[in-house]
Amino acid sequence: MAPRTRTGTHDDTGFDRPVVLILFNRPAVTRRILDAIAQVRPRHLLVIADGPRPGHPTDAERCHAARAVIDRVDWPCRVETNFAAANMGTRHRIASGLDWVFERVEEALVLEDDCLPDPTFFPFCAELLDRFRDDARVFAVCGRSSMPAGRRNQPYSYYYSTLFASWGWATWRRAWRQFDMDMRLWPQMRREDRLLDLFNDRAAARFWTSTFDLLQADRLNSWAYRFQLACWVNNGLVVKPTRHLIRNIGFGEDATLTKDVIPGVNDQAGPVAFPLRHFPLMLPDRQSDLDDLRRRYFRPLHRRALFKLRRLARRLPLLPQRALQPAAEG
User: Fold this and answer.
1) Tens of pLDDT along 119-152?
2) DSSP secondary structure of 156-211
């Protein structure tokens, strides 16, 4: 896993913040994300890639094709790559890759290969990275909103949240240093029932307690939930736009995690207006957070069953056409 660097001619007109692209084995979506990045021509691009999975015969070719997309960079740019020779899994690959990133830069925007940004995502993050650089309360600037659609007409460009969203985000070295893969403070947090303090909602506390227990037992493969815990342990906040600036284009069977579309979580992204209208109160919108949790995670049993049936149906042979026709009347 030897990092490589390609340095282009210096360009003062390009986007002046480092951009991180995390990819794996999907060259088609990777091309779309790189095309979106190319619109702002970042001067520094850092690329993280996992290696092919054992037992997946097409992975080696697909991983190679996804990495080759980076050769399309045709603007003055310092390109650094950190490619794993073997598969590390989502958690370890992204966490180790971001360790590598923040050894090199003080701050960065982070995009995975299926997170398509609106062009205004980049200046939105840049302005807020400047605004909160020295404010230890803020852990990240996110590109996804968790505010219900009916509440998005408030007169501000962003709000504060306690829920980290990893579909397009930005952060600083100082915040990433709080990331703890071993979750050393979770036992104390669990013992003292601190999650209930966050939401004042027993269902939310139960959900996150179960989630962190699974993480600690190594039965859930997620780096993002570990970063979420680091944020809460430090009483941190994230900044979110009042409308989505990121759209996930990677739902499907070839996705690592996002195989099923959850209604309402992938609304169309759109631009944020400038100049930004700054939110004056450093207080999280806990009601929007709780609404988001209920919408995304506390789904009724019948809806969870429907998702599982849809996934199973995609794996079964197609039924004969006659079986799909409605019965004749009479």
Assistant:
1) 999 999 999 999 999 999 999 999 999 887 777 6
2) SSEEEESS---SSEEEEHHHHTT--TT-TTHHHHHHTTTHHHHHS-HHHHHHHHHH
